[in-house]
Amino acid sequence: MNEATQLESKFPVPLRDKFHIPTFASMGIDPHNNDELTYLCGNSLGLMPREIRQAINRELDAWASRGVEGHFNHPSATDWVDVDLPVVPLLASVVGAKESEVAIMNSLTTNLNALLVAFYRPRGKKVQILFEKGSFPSDYYAFHEQSRLQGLNPQETLLQLEPRPNEHHLRTEDILKAIDDHRDTLALVCLPGIQYYTGQWLNIGEITKHAHRYGITVGWDLAHAVGNVPLQLHDWEVDFACWCSYKYLNSGPGAMGGAFVHEAHSAHTSMPRLAGWWGNNRQRRFAMLENFEPIEGALGFRQSNPSVIDVVSIHTSLQLFQMAGGVETLRARSLQLTNFLQRLLQSSKFYGKPRGFVIITPTHHTNDHGAQLSLLFDTTDIDEISQSIRAKGLIADERRPSVIRLAPAPLYNTFQEVYRTFEILEEALTEFTAH
Ligand SMILES: *Cc1c(COP(=O)(O)O)cnc(C)c1O
Has residue 42 been placed in a domain? Predict the structure, then answer.
């Protein structure tokens, strides 16, 4: 605990007071206990920035007082017609993109599907999509159905990589080799920036570069990477990417997603896509002409006018990232938090023991994992441990049958909380192994 206090004074939590932290009482665990819970679940749903309530209220007031005129004559903030534009530079800095390369639009799976329509262009023998076995099911369904929409057979087009026997994550060399082996039949490589289950951070730059040698398009699902680790999407020459905003970006349940389209593509307005009026030339959008003139850049991939309440939530939340010094600065503290958690867990008397647990997240290098550590328990019924840690005040994410994911978020979690996490797990496992 001493060490936690020392680390906390060396790497102080930047913006905890800007967030609502759930308590035992607010969570319904113990109505008389107003102590804060240890929330290590920001990889699943980030906590609520307090200022989002005012930001949303401002839009409700605008709607109440001005109705439709809020689109062009907002009483107190950006006109709704351009409400997402001030968010673009903030988002571009989070993902390492040029401003012209990012947009907030739709939601994650919808963006994946929209970008697959534009970027998955099977031709001749080049029809395959390389991705991972054990991918988030939404992504699998998208690849499967996109293949069928092209009149192809998913049995032939879906190429799934899996870790070697007795290993938990993919080796970069194996991914590169799979690309070499299938270079003549691959149309697309589409992988997660950070794998949601294991927490592995893939080498986005190297994999993208390798596939490009053979002219293969490369897309990334950044759900668990955005706001978690520094990204350089422009420099890595990623073709396209998409993400959600409710995990590390703290923008609220089901908040709109984001999309990246590299300028090498987005500058070409002739690129076929899923189209809508919001992607059309801003000056002529309301002329209602039968002439699709997409905006140059990622904004030209927007289809609908955005949900204003969503957009201001994302805006408010991204301002906190900026206030904290940006993702690079946060990452330095994040590594300290996660390292501390790792050291404590590995010192546990249950580590690697029967009915104990191991960490399956790769942690050999600073660039092979983000904030999250995934714990694999030696039990096929994780529910008992899960319920026990929750009752003791640790909110973590359970993945049946045997995994619990812990993710200290550098914006609001503290080293004391990491220590408390360790204590709670020790208590829970002491009880669990006693029967
Ligand atoms: C969280 C997550 C999703 C969720 O998709 P939504 O469209 O936002 O519901 C999809 N894919 C991955 C990899 C995720 O981590």
Answer: no
pTM above threshold 0.85: yes
126 with 208, same domain? yes
Q: Assess whether pLDDT exceeds 70 at residue 1.
A: no
Q: At what angle do helices 108-119 and 137-149 cross, to 10 degrees?
A: 30
Report, as an integer, the average pLDDT of 380-397: 95
> Which residue, chain included where needed, has tokens 């709670």?
424
| CA angle 345–346–347, rounded 5-degree value | 90
Is residue 203 over pLDDT 90?
A: yes
Q: Which atom of ligand 1 is nearest to the CA of 139?
A: 11
Residue 276 lies in a domain: yes
- Please report the atom of ligand 1 found closest to the CA of residue 224: 15
Mutate which of 196, 200, 224 for ligand 1? The one with the most ligand atoms within 8 Å of its CB, which is 196
Distance 433 CA to ligand 1 centre (A): 35
- Ligand 1 center from residue 221 Cα (angstroms): 8
In a domain? residue 368: yes
Dihedral in degrees, nearest 10, Cα atoms 270, 271, 273, 275: -20
Q: How far apart are CA 108 and CA 21, in angstroms?
A: 26
Specify whether 26 is located in the same domain as 128: no
Residues 313 and 354 reside in one and the same domain: no
Q: ∠ CA 362-244-405 to the nearest 5 degrees? A: 35
Say how many Å lie between the CA of residue 244 and the centre of ligand 1.
7
What's the pLDDT score for residue 250?
A: 98
- Examine the domain organization and report whether 219 and 304 are in the same domain: yes
Residue 151: which region, alpha, beta or left (left: phi > 0; alpha: psi -120 to 50)?
A: left
- Any residues with Cβ below 6 Å from ligand 1, and which? 107-109, 136, 138-139, 192, 196, 221, 223-224, 244
Residue-wise pLDDT tens digits, 319-339: 999 999 999 999 999 999 999
Atom of ligand 1 nearest to the CA of 108: 7
Q: Helix or strand or coil: residue 433?
A: helix
Q: In angstroms, what is the span from residue 148 Cα to ligand 1's centroid?
A: 21
- Please identify, among 298, 322, 346, the residue that sits at the C-terminal boundary of a domain: 322
Instruction: Write out pLDDT tens, residues 30-85.
Output: 999 999 999 999 999 999 999 999 999 999 999 999 999 999 999 999 999 999 99
The boundaries of the domain holding residue 314 are 57-322
Tokens found for residue 51: 């200022």
For residue 435, the model assigns a pLDDT of 82
Domain count across the chain: 2
Confidence at residue 268, expressed as pLDDT on a 0 to 100 scale: 83
CATH at 339: 3.90.1150.10
- 48 part of a folded domain: no
Has residue 422 got a pLDDT over 70? yes
Q: Which residues are annotated as a binding site for pyridoxal 5'-phosphate?
A: 108-109, 136-139, 221, 224, 246, 277, 305
Of 289, 322, 355, which closes a domain? 322
> Which atom, in ligand 1's list, is nearest to the CA of 44?
1
- Determine the distance separating the centroid of ligand 1 and the alpha carbon of 1, expressed in angstroms: 36
Average the pLDDT over 362-389 and give the result. Answer: 95
Looking at ligand 1, which residue's alpha carbon is closest to its atom 15? 223
